Amino acid sequence: PGAQTLMHDLVSRAGYADLATELGLGFGGFVALESLVAAHPEVLIVSVRDTRAPSLAEQLLDHPALRASTAAARRVEVAENLWTCAGAFSADAVATLEQARP
Length: 102
Hints:
Layout: H1 6-13, H2 19-22, H3 33-39, E1 44-48, H4 56-60, H5 64-67, E2 75-79, H6 90-99
Parallel strand pairs: 1-2
């Protein structure tokens, strides 16, 4: 998610490192697929939403290079509504992340 974002704060609070921040991305930054695969992350954390209307961003997560990477071994899904905006429900996002820790 990049530094200075709610997602970064919640991911960090749950004890994970944020690759986007380590790569120097700030608010609104995106990690290129090649950088993600090359980083060999232990965990890939993704937002999930109603799949009746798939997006191009979600299709990227099904890329063969990503499926073959170490990130594919450990995928943690967090409901998009839990961390799009801050609220009491943000604690549920942290709990989801903590429960999935390797």
